[in-house]
């Protein structure tokens, strides 16, 4: 029987993010092109003792390879913790208690779905644990649990490049050609996702120019062309004005980042700025320049598309 299960899941950037009107349930209908990048969260389940009935998570600890938030995020409210409990409860299989370790490589509250990646990696890790003691959940059942955990969690499970509609959780895989090379810059001033969406609603009341961009055709054609210039020209994020209103420094970061490579835009709800470059060398050069210019900001390179959540090792 396993003593340790290791899984990983990707961070993401939205190549197109169109935000519709607010819905009665507090969410917004989206038309989103999600793109997974090879900056991955790692979740380890350390397994101890004999199978038990009831809750299985004994404790969790996050190790930060990015800036650490002020508050403690390790507890029963954490998405990774909730994901493990949800899989075991749904499967109805007795498994031993686990300690969860998360290696955090994707910014917290950064707009790259780091918390959702933790949840997705925890879902597949927990399902591998269940498989050692009984019948694991189907892909569909895992997807349904992902939907309940958060709007971005289903994409973190799936990876690649995908069109998301509804809350962003109704997904269809998209065709794409070639690799995209990115620099990600985090000004270390997190934006709570819900605040960015509600501020966009407010801004739209005063500014009729902020219409929803719900047609991703330009982007979907561009990503099949293997032409970075075309992809760069088609990138779009409806949430960008909200992120820039909340964090005015983003204007300067976007301008500077845009000068280093093809195009810079805010990733998801921000504040991370994603910079699309021609190739890996250009991305590394741009990352060096930006790290120097914005002393204290976090900067890394990544490329996509990358695979979704996977079990890396059972030992
Ligand atoms: O689903 P998740 O917990 O990641 O979403 C965080 C918040 O972002 C939601 O509570 C909601 O305010 C906002 N959101 C939204 N429309 C979406 C996704 C998220 O308004 N499609």
From TrEMBL:
UniProt KW keywords: ATP-binding, Isoprene biosynthesis, Kinase, Nucleotide-binding, Transferase
Enzyme class at the top of the EC tree: transferase
Listed GO biological process terms: isopentenyl diphosphate biosynthetic process, methylerythritol 4-phosphate pathway; terpenoid biosynthetic process
Active site: 12, 152
Entries under SUPFAM superfamilies matching the protein: GHMP Kinase, C-terminal domain (SSF55060), Ribosomal protein S5 domain 2-like (SSF54211)
Reactions it catalyzes: 4-CDP-2-C-methyl-D-erythritol + ATP = 4-CDP-2-C-methyl-D-erythritol 2-phosphate + ADP + H(+)
EC number(s) reported in the record: 2.7.1.148
PANTHER family from the UniProt entry: 4-DIPHOSPHOCYTIDYL-2-C-METHYL-D-ERYTHRITOL KINASE, CHLOROPLASTIC
Role played: Catalyzes the phosphorylation of the position 2 hydroxy group of 4-diphosphocytidyl-2C-methyl-D-erythritol.
Protein name: 4-diphosphocytidyl-2-C-methyl-D-erythritol kinase
Organism, scientific name: Corynebacterium ureicelerivorans
């Amino acid at each position: 029987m396993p003593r340790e299960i290791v899984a990983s899941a990707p961070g993401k950037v939205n190549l197109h993010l169109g935000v519709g009107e607010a819905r009665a349930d507090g969410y917004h209908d989206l038309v989103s092109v999600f793109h997974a990048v090879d900056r991955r969260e790692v979740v380890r389940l350390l397994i101890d003792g004999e199978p038990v009935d009831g809750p299985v998570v004994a404790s969790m600890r996050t190790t930060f390879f990015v800036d650490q938030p002020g508050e403690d995020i390790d507890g029963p409210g954490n998405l990774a913790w909730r994901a493990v409990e949800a899989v075991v409860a749904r499967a109805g299989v007795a498994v031993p208690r686990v300690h969860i370790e998360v290696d955090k490589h994707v910014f917290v509250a950064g707009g790259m779905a780091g918390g959702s990646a933790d949840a997705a990696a925890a879902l597949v890790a927990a399902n591998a644990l269940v498989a050692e003691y009984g019948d694991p959940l189907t892909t569909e059942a895992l997807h349904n649990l992902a939907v309940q955990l958060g709007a971005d969690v289903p994409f973190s499970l799936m990876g690649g490049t995908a069109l998301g509609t509804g809350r962003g959780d109704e997904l269809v895989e998209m065709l794409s050609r070639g690799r995209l090379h990115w620099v990600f810059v985090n000004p270390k001033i997190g934006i709570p996702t819900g605040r960015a969406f509600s501020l966009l609603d407010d801004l739209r009341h005063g500014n009729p120019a902020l219409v929803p961009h719900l047609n991703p055709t330009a982007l979907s054609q561009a990503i099949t062309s293997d032409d970075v210039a075309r992809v760069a020209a088609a990138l779009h994020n409806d949430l960008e004005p909200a992120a820039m209103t909340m964090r005015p420094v983003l204007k300067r970061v976007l301008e500077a980042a845009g000068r280093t490579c093809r195009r810079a835009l805010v990733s998801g709800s921000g504040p991370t700025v994603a910079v699309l470059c021609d190739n890996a060398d250009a991305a590394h050069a741009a990352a060096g320049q930006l790290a120097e210019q914005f002393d204290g900001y976090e900067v890394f390179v990544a490329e996509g598309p990358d695979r979704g959540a996977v079990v890396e090792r059972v030992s």
